[in-house]
Design goal:
Order of helices and strands: HEEEEEEHEEEH
Low-confidence stretches: 20-25
Oligomer: single chain
CATH architecture of the largest domain: 2-Layer Sandwich
Number of helices: 3
CATH class of the largest domain: Alpha Beta
Strand order of the largest sheet: 4-1-7-8
Radius of gyration: 21 Å
Strand content: 15-25%
Largest sheet: 4 strands, antiparallel
Distance between the termini: 53 Å
Mean pLDDT: 85
Length: 153
Amino acid sequence: MVRLYAIVKRSLVALTLFFSALAVTLGDLKPNDSSAPILQYFAPVQIAPRPGHEDAPNLTFDQRKPLFTITSVRQLIPHRDGKGVTIILNEKDKQRYAELTRRFKGRLLICVAATDVISIEQITSPAENGMIEFSNARYTGHIARYLRRRFGM
């Protein structure tokens, strides 16, 4: 009887570890449509102003050098207004995003969701909690719409 108890106990521990590892591996959300990155962050590069646009921000970025690429998220939370979303990063990306926002505190970052869905963000403080909000209130409503469509919401 004691031997049976030990076998059952070991089996339960093994199953618990297996399902925990499975949940961590498969727990992240990925878009339905492709394997393209969800979001990429780039450092802005100052360029010479174009004639007639001297007062506009004259920035670009090098598409070949992303500072940070998000390919999956832990969770995508739709806002009650039906427009905004908050993404919760997985643990690895949470740490990388926190480091990036610490490094760029007080500076600009360019967030690219698709070739025609781009936002320039002013980093005011490090983001340590792994949450990124996209909404009209943050002037990133176009990225929220893109994420909702991409994740089938």
